[in-house]
Structure formats: C-alpha cells, structure tokens
Amino acid sequence: MQLVCPSCRKHTERGLELHTVEADGEGLLRCRGCARLYPVIDGIPVLLRDLSQADHFGLLAALGPPQSLAALGSAGPDDSALPHMLEQLSTYLETWRTGFEAVAAKLRERPRVGLVLELGCGVGRALFELAQKADAVVGLDRSGSLLRAARVLLRGEELPYASKLAGRSHARASVLAPAAAANVGLVCADALDPPFSPGSFDRVAALNLLDNVRSPRALLHHLHQLAAPGGEILLSSPFSWRDGIVDEPERLPGPDPAASLRKEVQALGWTVEDEADLPWTLRRDARSETVYQVYFMRARRP
Q1: Residue 62: predicted pLDDT
Q2: What's the distance, Cα to Cα, between the start and end of the chain in Å?
C-alpha cells in the first residue's frame, strides 16, 4: 500500500494534489513533495500532522509487563493518562473474548476481496475477521497503544494485559487470537486525515467509529473517497454522542440517527444492501459492562 503525506495534501484547480512518502533511512519516511519526515515505530508508520496525537506510543514498552502497569496505574488521579490507558486497553482486549460476536458474524458473511481498510481499528478484533476475507488488510488508528496490542495479537502471539477488576485493582490476564493474520498492515494516522489515495480499497470499514470523531459527515466522505467505484462500505455505530468528541451541530439529527445516516449515505449515492441492530458489549471492569445496540449497515458506493 502506497502511503501519501497528509501534511501537504491539498485541492487545487487541477484537482487533489498528493505526494507519496518513501523510506529515508532506518525508521523514517520522507514526503517526496514537502520533505516532511514521519517516524516508523516498531514497523508502524506514524503519519500524523501533529505527532503528539500518537497517544502513549512507546509507553507500554517503556513501562514493562502488565503487573508493573497496574501498580503504576494505581497511583495518581483517576483521570490521568495511565489509568485511562489501562482501562481502555482492558475494555478493548476483553472484546476478543466476548461482546463482538454479532458484528463478527456479519463480517464473516462477506465474499473475499482484494484490499481492505478499517478506520479506527483499535486492538484489531475486526481486523482479524476482515483479514479472513481479503488478500490484504490495512488497519488505521490514532492510538499507538492500541496499535501495539493489535500488532502482537495479529501475529498470533499471546498478549498479557492488566484486566480491570474494580476501582484501581487489576488482575493479570492474557488474550490470544485464534490464528495469525499475516496479511495485515498497521498505520498510525487520523481517520479524518487518512494517508491513502482515493479509490484504493475494495472494502472500507468504520465500525463503532462514527460517534468517536469530530465530524461524522467528514468520515462518511472519506469512506466514499477511499472506496473504489463499486466498492463495499461497512459501518456500525451505537450513536453514543458525547460532549468533547462530537459537537452538537455535527451529530446526525433526530430521534432516529439510523434514518439520518441512511439519508446521508444515500445522498452520496450509496446503495444500502444490509441493515441490522446488533448487540455490542464493552466490559469496563469485573462488576460493570455496557451493552449497546449498534446499527450495522453494509452499503456500496457507485
């Protein structure tokens, strides 16, 4: 997959102007247009306009095994970076065990295609399913800590982590994917600023991401641009709008956000081929979990 520079991408009178990035020594990529440098960390290209957005990249490796992380996470305010990261990792890694099966079953129904992209891939649970139905898959996320976890799991290696019990108490746990997925590449980037050329992918997925970006409509336009003509688009969302993530004017309006989403994608010319409400469970700790009804849509762009 050829990556493009997000920093100098722009629309001109001649159309969209893109410049690719290429290796520039060990651990670096350089844009062929603006000469901007981007790091490659543990084999994961980091293509962000603001590199400080690569939250917690390297923190897991620096702090060591899960028992050390849990001990450090027990100190300091609950809303500080490390306790938040630990809870986020624990919550997402638990989805490898349970909570994602209904959406996974939808992904297993799809026929095999060539190249697939998932925006907001997290720890790679959906990537694993998408990889079974594609020649190659690219996973994009802005979180370095989640991508590190995905990298280990998709190699077929066991990943230890600190599973949250209650309060600041954790237990050592581990998760293992059913098999390795060697056809997956990972990129650290912004889903609203993806470093790819238009029309590059046969299938594009954004699962439970729509309500976790600044502008859901901008995300829909990126999905439209990244999918090849006739390409398939997979969406799911619980429409769990939160202040500080999605501003009120950007939210899909009305009491039925699924109907609003359907209207938005039809305006883009997509053909909706499948819709369903599916359960999706997030485990916060041993005593609490949230079960969402996510709206799942499979559509095809013209």
Answers
A1: 44
A2: 23
Domain boundaries, the chain: 42-300
pLDDT (0 to 100) of residue 58: 52
176, 296 Cβ separation under 8 angstroms: no
The pTM score is 0.92
Q: What is the pLDDT of residue 75?
A: 57
User: Which pLDDT value is given to residue 63?
Assistant: 46
Class of domain 42-300: alpha beta
User: Which residues of the chain are under the pLDDT cut of 50?
Assistant: 60-64
Distance CA 145, CA 92 (A): 11
Residue 68: the pLDDT is 54
| Both tokens assigned to 44 | 């994961």
